[in-house]
Amino acid sequence: MVFYLYTMKIISTNIGKSTTITWNGAEEQTGIYKYATTTALHLTSEGVQNDTISNTKVHGGINKACYLFSSNQYQYWKKLYPNLDMNWGMFGENLTIENLDEATLRIGDIYKIGTALVQVSQPREPCYKLGIRFGTQKILKQFIDHNHPGAYVRVLEEGIVKKEDVCSLVEQSKNTLTIQDFYKLLFAKEKNLELVRLAITNTALPEHKRAQLNKYLKKRPS
């Protein structure tokens, strides 16, 4: 078991309402515009109650029930985008977490947050909607290069979470693949084979992610 120097705790709980945006000349809905709420959130196995998920094919569901992002990273982005109002929820996260560290957060780690029990499942992969919120699609490459994507969790036990709740590590994954390791792996053209094998054997990672990496491994010359 690893004991962390800094305590992870909720700085802000955030939800959003459906917002109309224009992309490639067509109007569509998004739930990325999240804002701090004064009320607690109910985490369910399919998502956050009363939150908006416009595209259920790529957001929400068992493997992306709740999105966590580090409050520690906000200062970095404020320096890059000083003219934007960088309020909690800016990255579309449901929970803004103090001291969340993707370099130590393992895929498969289980945490108790409030009355909910959650498991780290995968990093966030940015899409054009983040670019729309930031006013430039340049944010996508910047977000990838910065390598602090936050983390999605699946909800093992539904429960209530609120501001100031501590994230208590219940069980650390024996598979050492971290969120940051896997994020690098996702976008690397030449993938680290040791990390590929770690990912394939990590059952907490969504099955389709492991299947894609297994195909990559099989295509490699023996």
How would you sum up this structure, described in words?
With 222 residues, the protein is of the alpha+beta class. The protein is built from six helices and 13 strands. The strands form three sheets. Strands 4-1-8-7-11-10-9-13 form an eight-stranded mixed β-sheet. The protein has a three-stranded antiparallel β-sheet with strand order 6-5-12, with no helix packed on it. Strands 2-3 form a two-stranded antiparallel ribbon. Strand 9 (110-113) and strand 10 form a beta hairpin. Helix 5 (193-200) packs antiparallel against helix 6. It starts with 8 loop residues before the first strand and ends with a helix.
Give the radius of gyration: 17 Å
Question: What integer is the average pLDDT?
Answer: 93
Low-confidence stretches: none
Number of strands: 13
* Order of SSEs: EEEEEEEHEEEHHEEEHHH
Strand composition percent:
25-35%
Q: Main sheet: which strands, in order across?
A: 4-1-8-7-11-10-9-13
Identify the notable features of this structure and list them briefly:
222 residues, three-stranded antiparallel sheet, 6 helices, 13 strands
Q: What's the helix and strand layout?
A:
Blueprint: E1 9-16, E2 19-23, E3 26-30, E4 34-37, E5 41-44, E6 47-48, E7 66-70, H1 74-80, E8 95-98, E9 110-113, E10 116-123, H2 128-134, H3 138-146, E11 151-157, E12 159-161, E13 167-171, H4 179-187, H5 193-200, H6 207-219
Parallel strand pairs: 7-8
Antiparallel strand pairs: 1-4, 1-8, 2-3, 5-6, 5-12, 7-11, 9-10, 9-13, 10-11
Helix pairs in contact: 5-6
Quick structural overview:
The chain is an alpha+beta fold. The protein has six helices and 13 strands.
